[in-house]
Amino acid sequence: MKLLKVTTGFVTQIFDTDQGLFVEQSFTAGDQCDYEDEGGGTVESSLFEANGTEVYLPYNMEQPGKWAKVVWTIGDVQSLRPNWTDEQCEQFLYDNEDYIRDRLTELGHEVIDALLPPKTEAFQKDD
């Protein structure tokens, strides 16, 4: 069963007039949350709990000006540990998110450095 948590709030976007583009955005949640089934009917908020605590998902908004985004899913973990449950995979990703992100950042810098032209070459824009 899939349920919806509808949170009221507002989005703030920052526009840089020098660059002519939005450079940042954030969502500020209000106090009102509605809990619904897929048909729009009201359901109890307790259905969003695990071990007696409401499960929290941050209101992360994708920021402009970022490239080569990488996400890991339960399926990625299960491809290496096929006997693990979804819950085990999710807990592993939750527990190790910081380590995975830090290592991916290190590897990303290595790849960028390898792909950059030698420091003696000037950067040329294509016409």
| Number of structural domains | 2
State the secondary-structure class: alpha+beta
Taken as a percent bin, the fraction of beta residues is 25-35%
Shape label: flat
- CA-to-CA gap between the ends? 53 Å
Q: Detail the poorly predicted runs.
A: none
Let me know the number of strands.
4
* Radius of gyration (Å): 21 Å
For the largest sheet, list the strands in their spatial order: 1-2
What is the average per-residue confidence, as pLDDT, rounded to a whole number? Answer: 87
Summarize the amount of helix as a percent range.
Answer: 25-40%
**Biggest β-sheet description:** 2 strands, antiparallel
The H-and-E topology, N to C, reads as EEEEHH
**Distinct helical segment count:** 2
List the helices and strands and how they pair.
Blueprint lengths: L2 E14 L4 E17 L11 E2 L2 E2 L19 H7 L5 H30 L12
Antiparallel strand pairs: 1-2, 3-4
Helix pairs in contact: 1-2
Describe this structure in words.
By secondary structure, this protein is α+β, with helices and mostly antiparallel strands. The protein has two domains: 1-61, no CATH class; 67-117. Helices cover 29% and strands 28% of the residues. The chain is built from two helices and four strands, in the order ββββαα. Strands 1-2 form a two-stranded antiparallel sheet. α1 packs across α2.
In short:
This protein has helices at residues 74-80, 86-115; strands at 3-16, 21-37, 49-50, 53-54. The chain is α+β, with helices and mostly antiparallel strands. A hairpin with a 4-residue loop joins strand 1 (3-16) and strand 2.
Key descriptive features of the protein:
127 residues, alpha+beta, 2 domains, two-stranded antiparallel ribbon, two-stranded antiparallel sheet, 2 helices, 4 strands, 29% helix, flat
